[in-house]
Amino acid sequence: MDGKTMQDTRPKKVVLAFSGGLDTSVILKWMQIKYDCEIVTFTADLGQGDEVEAARDKAISLGVKPQNVFVEDLRNELVASYAAPVFRANAAYEGYYLMGTPIARPLVAKRQIEIARAVGADSVAHGATGKGNDQLRFELAYYALAPEVRVIAPWREWDMAGRAQLVAFADAHGLSVGKDKRGAPPYSSDANLLHVSCEGKALEDPWISPEDDAWSRTVAPELAPDRPTWVEIHFERGDPVALDGVSMSPAALLSRLNEIGAANGVGRLDIVDTRYVGLKCRGLFETPGGTIWQVAHRTIESITLDRGEAHLKDELMPKYAELVYNGYWFAPEREMLQALIDKSQERVTGKVRLRLYKGNVIVEGRQSPNTLYDQDLVTFEDGGDYDQRDATGFIRINALRLRLLGRIRNALPLV
Amino acid sequence: MDGKTMQDTRPKKVVLAFSGGLDTSVILKWMQIKYDCEIVTFTADLGQGDEVEAARDKAISLGVKPQNVFVEDLRNELVASYAAPVFRANAAYEGYYLMGTPIARPLVAKRQIEIARAVGADSVAHGATGKGNDQLRFELAYYALAPEVRVIAPWREWDMAGRAQLVAFADAHGLSVGKDKRGAPPYSSDANLLHVSCEGKALEDPWISPEDDAWSRTVAPELAPDRPTWVEIHFERGDPVALDGVSMSPAALLSRLNEIGAANGVGRLDIVDTRYVGLKCRGLFETPGGTIWQVAHRTIESITLDRGEAHLKDELMPKYAELVYNGYWFAPEREMLQALIDKSQERVTGKVRLRLYKGNVIVEGRQSPNTLYDQDLVTFEDGGDYDQRDATGFIRINALRLRLLGRIRNALPLV
Amino acid sequence: MDGKTMQDTRPKKVVLAFSGGLDTSVILKWMQIKYDCEIVTFTADLGQGDEVEAARDKAISLGVKPQNVFVEDLRNELVASYAAPVFRANAAYEGYYLMGTPIARPLVAKRQIEIARAVGADSVAHGATGKGNDQLRFELAYYALAPEVRVIAPWREWDMAGRAQLVAFADAHGLSVGKDKRGAPPYSSDANLLHVSCEGKALEDPWISPEDDAWSRTVAPELAPDRPTWVEIHFERGDPVALDGVSMSPAALLSRLNEIGAANGVGRLDIVDTRYVGLKCRGLFETPGGTIWQVAHRTIESITLDRGEAHLKDELMPKYAELVYNGYWFAPEREMLQALIDKSQERVTGKVRLRLYKGNVIVEGRQSPNTLYDQDLVTFEDGGDYDQRDATGFIRINALRLRLLGRIRNALPLV
Amino acid sequence: MDGKTMQDTRPKKVVLAFSGGLDTSVILKWMQIKYDCEIVTFTADLGQGDEVEAARDKAISLGVKPQNVFVEDLRNELVASYAAPVFRANAAYEGYYLMGTPIARPLVAKRQIEIARAVGADSVAHGATGKGNDQLRFELAYYALAPEVRVIAPWREWDMAGRAQLVAFADAHGLSVGKDKRGAPPYSSDANLLHVSCEGKALEDPWISPEDDAWSRTVAPELAPDRPTWVEIHFERGDPVALDGVSMSPAALLSRLNEIGAANGVGRLDIVDTRYVGLKCRGLFETPGGTIWQVAHRTIESITLDRGEAHLKDELMPKYAELVYNGYWFAPEREMLQALIDKSQERVTGKVRLRLYKGNVIVEGRQSPNTLYDQDLVTFEDGGDYDQRDATGFIRINALRLRLLGRIRNALPLV
User: Fold this and answer.
1) Quick one: how many helices (H) and strands (E) in chain A?
2) Starting at the edge strand that comes first in sequence, how are the strands of the sheet with C360-367 ordered?
3) Residues 242-271 of A with CB under 8 A from B
4) Which CATH number belongs to the domain containing residue B359 in this structure?
5) Res B202 pLDDT > 90
6) pTM for this entry
7) Do A265 and A125 have their domain in common?
8) Given an 8 Å threshold on Cβ–Cβ distance, is D389 in contact with B393?
9) Which domain holds residue A362?
10) Distances (CA, A) of D63 to B8, C48, C149, C325, D175
11) What's the number of domains chain C is made of?
12) pLDDT digits 0-9 by tens, A208-224
């Protein structure tokens, strides 16, 4: 990092993570004015449910050259290369959060850098605010993959502080603004194939129950069908590969799990979590397919992982989740933990039967060609190759250190 | 441990953990015959639902002197001193198991040793088998508290291998055996105020769904009421102390949580877990009140624990759970972890509102005088005492090491 | 943190950590000019070897009111309340560094805040630069103890970038500057009773051996006496309390260990460590007494700590060291770990005999009334209370899970 | 593990780990008598310094068929595949022990199983006693690699309790016994290319200094040369590959490090460690080359590993060391940790200059093509690509959670 830092130079060509919505449209225009720079837009279909091709038209209408507009379907890469590694770890941040947003940002950031290399851009930009986690997930990825990149984070640079000012800027610069954007600010939300999140507004009082309109992907358990849905998930080496006997692509499989989970009221979460910047925030998360996936994965692991493997994974999971949540996807320690986790998944093959019912994911059965469960050994009625006298030695040797210690701590003899 | 080990001497006076059922009655008689020793029985009311005074009559009918029969109500001690410390840790073994059995055995073992000291007994005995975890939970506790104690574990000593032989022994020695004990062996079960477990029989094939009669404490979600139940739990320094504004003793509070949880289908678990002796076993666990308790505790922690506290607890939880599960309650490393955990609970005070509905425990709100949640800081629309430019420095300094590494790993410049 | 942040207001009364040297004298003067504020100086005797009373005269000569000059001997508090907790943990950052500087900054910061409360100051200031760790150790402590405090870090605020500019500022404002400060900048150094550090100049090439003048507290091993020095250290509950049978105050004991260590060439360290801000830096550290202390402490622990205690401490030590190194002394997770560590020290009482010789700290013997070492048990020739057949059961049960796994992994039978 | 366990059947063909010394010769003869079985001997040259071909003659003289005698030089495999992985982890058990013995047993066990498969043996045997760790290191490896193998551990089976009885047995069965074996029992020792250990006799009082004859591989620091020896070690991807510019095989390199370390009094260790069976034992260990190796490896890591990598390794090292020490080399969790560790070593390439002097291993310099040390960034006098104002944001954001907490914990405002 010799000489003058990129951060102090004027950006010439910027790859912007562009949704086509109000915020990133304003950002696009603001950068054109502020930096007089060439803009490249990147829009990914991550399963968020919007029409991504609309973003192409929007970009061109804002003066972006057609060859500078990139629109890609990344759904399979998202599931196979970002969600699946995290589910192999059974990762849940602060006990519950399945990290639908944290897994998606690094993928977008990686593609932005790849596109920057391809088109000769010197800068990248994103629309995340200065109080949240997403700025970290974007920028730590940018810097890890391209240490000399110039990063533009407009929300931390400009003086606009809220939606009203954005609308005013848009009006002033001839951007069309939908009527729905003009009223009170909506919930803040992020969506992709793994989840939908919802923050802000009335949710900001953590004592108050969420209103119904804060949930968008799942039905309430009370409104789910009165009869359960059964599903059988097949795993190969730690990843789900088939539902009810039908092999599917990663994105298709998760989409289908989302459908049946959402219909059965599965995967709602209402938590206060702690952002990397130190703030606590209350959020709602809907992860119907992911919730089923995690239960099924832990279940197939329960018969295919040895105790040494399973417990080591459990001990390291919180650290792994923290790294992913905080934006350290491309940090070497995340990769080291991933190597450890993936090593354990070689025998995690088999199938799990589940019953979904009004918010519940109920395990019904599990089976594997690699099962470590041994019915003959465990039975109460007969010995098999297990000599109960061995247990006496096992206990007495394990107790030895406690007995030595007990002599010091409990001076009085028994009788 | 000088001279001859106690283990090779004849026991003279034995304190037996005695339920009054078939197994421990046979054990009592067998020890009288085998060792010609004086027997002291200890029966604890742990909330298992049996009439403990019946055990007194049974013991006396088997020839135990009245002054050698100890019957005690330990429900409050169980909840306050064994369950509560574990729930402060949010402990779950192998992801899910709330350890209803592991918390109860050390309490019984401790009282056996205390009684042994009081009555001048040299030995203790229990009815756990040689394949399970409970032998460890009893005996590691015995040895830690009384290093020189003589331990008798009849299931590892005698030649009887199953129920039929026990019944034959009972018949041969004039013990009355209920008709229900004479047929096929039932499920193996353990119950106390925290949970009921169920293993064996058809459950031994982990692919097969449990039959309805394997569940005994909770209703199925499908059979629970169609309207939710709301409950408000108040915590002081990490422990629940009141429900819906009414202060209760630890045992009364858990009993009440059990009632409302059980009625709403909450707390069923069907897992394969790995015993300390290395076997995998499929078990059903019903922990209605405990399931509510854990969700509520995590929720009140989510606004009262700093990230540093919460994440450290999460990282150490699997090790703590493993120690408790394996029987190391009285090991010094469990006590060290408990000191760390308890230190974190000083500010964990406040209340949580929950909705129970057909198996779901749904968080509705949380509130605390010690809340670290700051609505002014987190709001999207206004700054408060948070300067978004600080985030730039935060990110750039955190990225510095990744950028240095990136120069080595990604040799090509961006443009 | 309502309303306007302190950070944007003009400081009125500032407590400065003041050594009396060039840097903090320039800071004092610069703050008087820049902020037109009242200055309070705080100078601590931490065993750095300077005459602290000279700082009093210097402060008064710079216009500080006598009642605003605080000079205190904190040597015993430094050793008893900051070094000792860290040595109970056997903490070493990145394998070797005994953290002489990280333990001292929080103590100074804490006293600054206490003085600020006493004199009604609104701000605190320190002389640490913007690239190092010490700014974090000062400021994280300030903010933890007084969340609303105004922090002044002149090295990050002014435009002066090196020694020459400081000297020019001093000359311009009539500060006397010693001749030795006018030449090439010296090593950067920090000293207290626990250590002396040395960075900068020729050391900045990590391939080059340090020159002799970079070491200041210890003799080179080659120049140490040809005959060893023997010393016996007595510990009570984890802390050293006597040398060669003579009880001493914490500071006196460490001073004496420093003398004999330094004379025998003990405690030199030459490492590259990673600062919290992400830079790697090469430093020399001389910790003669601390090096002896750590060896002695580990040695007395080796016979008084149970394996469960010792291994848990070892697993958590790197995290504890990282927290202390990074400046999180007053963070709740450091306090949680300390509670765990201190819990383990209750029985760490006894004595250790050491031989010091030309850089070596050689253990000769260890003894404790609480020893868990049992000569009768361990002897090769006789059994004691250890039945070797128990080992068979211990091994076979521990092997069970490996055998179950081996059936899956090694399909071929042996014969 | 169906049907009858191997452990209860008569062994027909046994592969014995055979040194040719008194103990294993008695074992060979005892098994011939006791089990009337065919014996296969396996003797490995691990650098222990004995003439391994003598073991061949001894075996044949005891009636073993020539085709049943296996003698192999495993020195390179020992260093490359067992020592090197452990040194990549910087593993030290209980703070100091470099595990010379634990790394060698699994290699011998693995070869015994391979030979058993090759010759059609059903059993394996070793000469480790029932109180030590080595029985675990042998047997856990046997069972992991061949779950159905029959294990014979004569020391736990026969009634002979000490050396005198072994000599009597040898005399009675016509085994020649050297005069040196007839007196008082010697120290118990284990040697290979990595270390020599020494236990027993006068060492059993941990307060008493070792006698000179307890050390066998190194000179005392006092007797080492008065002038230092300099050495330069080159690492490739975490492993040493050349000394002073000369490439060497793994065994040759470690041999050479042993020579120069031993001559300079490097690598003596006198500790009490805790065996897996729970006993504490005092032992002397001489690891001259290994001691240099570990210092050099940590030093090259200090400039090539990112903080995230280095700290994660440090946190996991104690668990890794415990697994290796306890005999879990072939357990899947050791392999998972190894995958994580090895992942971090990809860039650990470069060289380290050391000075060896009377027991000291002194770092003089380190250099790497992959260095993360950046002289321009770290310098005190000039900025480079580091904006000190970023540090303000870094600190303030890191402090945010502490300030929020401080408002709860420190209610009083500053002024």
Assistant:
1) 14, 14
2) C246-247, C239-243, C229-236, C350-357, C360-367
3) 268, 270-271
4) 3.90.1260.10
5) no
6) 0.97
7) no
8) yes
9) 195-305+347-367
10) 40, 74, 86, 64, 12
11) 2
12) 999 999 999 999 999 99
